[in-house]
User: Fold this.
Amino acid sequence: MPPKGTKHRQARVLARKRPYGDRALTYAELGVLLNPRFNALALPGLAIMSGVSTKSLATDRLKVMEITKMVASHCDDTCTAFRTEPPLTKEVLDCAVTNFFPAGLGDMFSTKDGLLIVARVGIPISTIEDYARYLTNAEKIVGKQRETDEKKRQDRLQARADESGLPLE
Assistant:
């Protein structure tokens, strides 16, 4: 552990040297440097973090359900098919219909081969954006549920391994 007062000296040196171009550090930036419990410095175009898992930061941003294309081969006069990224699963669609889509519209939606099938034609872009938002929220819920289920499964298996006296592989 560095001697007491080292952070203050480092902050004063940084303030004098101006390592971030011609501007001086703001009081907020100096406060970040002086606070030993907060190890992050965020400046325009710069982010330095320690003790934070980048997986947890990126995971939520990556769970976005996008409606990327209308699939002509699955469309007819009564329905429209959309390709989603990632491919839509029945589990995610059921969650979205139950929790996010307006009540009474559930029977309009289905999935086939990873596509979103809507029993409707002439869908405006604003409605498609709503569908994507509903599916994204459902994808997040289902993902969290899967993580919870996997952790519970691992805990049960570890308890069984402990009971048998053998290590879990």
